[in-house]
Specification:
405 residues, alpha/beta, Enolase-like, domain 1, TIM Barrel, 2 domains, 3-stranded antiparallel sheet, 13 strands, 37% helix
């Protein structure tokens, strides 16, 4: 008599043979989102790592397993090809391993490199970390924030485009004059007044109930930045972002002491060790780590814990795609000291198989599907794979010298 008993793992394997990996994810995601895809005693192994560079320079990593479960993550976009190649090198270590040992793998990848930290190496770890959390959540049938202690909030405030439709009431404005940015070491009164007048007009247009952060982008030299910061104070900026490059934290800390407007920084700082100095020297009040190159979900959870001891909130940086946003939202749902999510109102319909839950009243609902809570449409993604954007350099229009941008 034929044995009719079939466990979940066997069912999953059978489905692989008939439907293919992509079909399985959609089938089990639709029918069993409240249940684990793999039994608690089943073993699971990584079988493959792939990376994809898009024409807009976004870099994705995909990790496959022998259970048919895949995980997705994103990495640094500025050194796209280096990150994509570096992720594949990690395959020599990760293939054959249990993907659910996420923290163990973070340590192994980080300590396995003789040269540690920095944007590229940490970005590689970040993307793989996201993908491993995505797999682990799918294995246990829960969103990542459930694996990290459960939700600390019911919804996530976002900023981006101010809109009555979405209720978004927070934004960020670049420091700029009428014709150019203030990139000289000590700008004259004329350009400074242009910058202030532009922000004054924006404040009058938006009103006092819209929070407006001011983005210096590390491109304004400290003498000029200090003059602009003081002049903007009457118009109540929400924060000053990257008023100085984080390459010299002492200079940033000195500047922060000279204004009551909170300093924000973090998009060019990596790992807990980089943020340790920012916190200890009080160089910034608001931390903006990027989940795609500061260390991934694992490391940002630690950074948040460090920041909490200094009464500092996180406002994660996000110029990337849907994995970046989804991973950041999972983090926001699991930490107590979250402030707001950058570009949280982006929808990414050109890369996702199903829409994100809509932003309502300026807040994004928690992502509750297993893993990161999103499903990448591989056909849409592959249609955008191509040569990344060229390297960017900016010059002083008066003398041709190189300037920050």
């Amino acid at each position: 008599m034929m044995d009719t008993k079939m466990d979940r793992r066997s069912l999953l394997r059978g489905a692989v043979g008939t439907a293919g990996i992509v079909g399985i994810e959609s089938t089990f995601g639709a029918l069993r989102t409240d249940a684990a895809a793999v039994g608690p005693k089943d073993k699971i192994k990584v079988t493959k790592i792939e990376s994809f560079v898009l024409k807009n320079s976004w870099v994705f990593v995909k990790i496959s397993t022998d259970a048919g479960i895949t995980g997705w993550g994103e990495m640094l976009k500025d050194d796209a090809k280096a990150c994509a190649a570096g992720a594949l090198e990690v395959g020599h270590y990760l293939v054959g391993q249990d993907p659910t040992r996420v923290t163990h793998h973070w340590q192994a990848i980080h300590r396995g490199a003789f040269y540690r930290g920095g944007p590229v190496k940490t970005a590689i770890t970040s993307g793989i970390d996201q993908a491993l959390w995505d797999i682990t959540g799918k294995v246990y049938g829960v969103p990542v924030h459930r694996l990290m202690g459960g939700p600390t909030r019911d919804k996530v405030r976002v900023y981006g485009t101010v809109s009555e439709k979405t209720g978004v009431n927070a934004m960020k404005a670049m420091v700029r004059g009428n014709k150019r940015a203030p990139y000289k070491y000590n700008e004259g009164m004329g350009l400074v007044e242009e910058v202030v007048d532009r922000f004054k007009s924006l404040r009058e247009k938006m009103g006092k109930y819209v929070d407006i952060g001011v983005e210096f982008h590390g491109a304004v030299q400290p003498p000029t930045a200090m003059t602009i910061m003081k002049a903007l104070e009457p118009y109540h900026p929400w924060f000053y972002e990257e008023s100085a490059q984080a390459l010299n934290v002492d200079v940033m800390a000195e500047m922060a002491k000279k204004t009551h407007i909170p300093f924000a920084t973090g998009e060019r700082i990596f790992t807990k060790w980089g943020f340790k100095e920012i916190l200890e020297k009080r160089a910034a009040t608001i931390l903006q780590p990027d989940i795609c190159y500061a260390g991934g979900i694992t490391e940002l959870k630690i950074i948040a814990g460090m920041a909490e001891a200094y009464y500092s909130p996180l406002a994660p940086h996000n110029p990337q795609g849907p994995c970046s946003l989804a991973a950041s939202l999972q983090l926001a749902a699991s930490i107590p000291n979250f402030l707001i999510q950058e570009r949280g109102d982006n929808e990414y319909t050109d890369l996702l198989a199903k829409p994100l839950p809509a932003v309502v009243g300026g807040y994004r609902p928690l992502l509750t599907e297993p893993g990161l809570g999103i499903t990448i449409d591989e056909n849409k993604l592959m249609a955008q794979v191509g040569e990344p954007r060229p390297y960017r350099t900016a010059y002083d229009e008066d003398d041709g010298s190189v300037v920050d941008w």
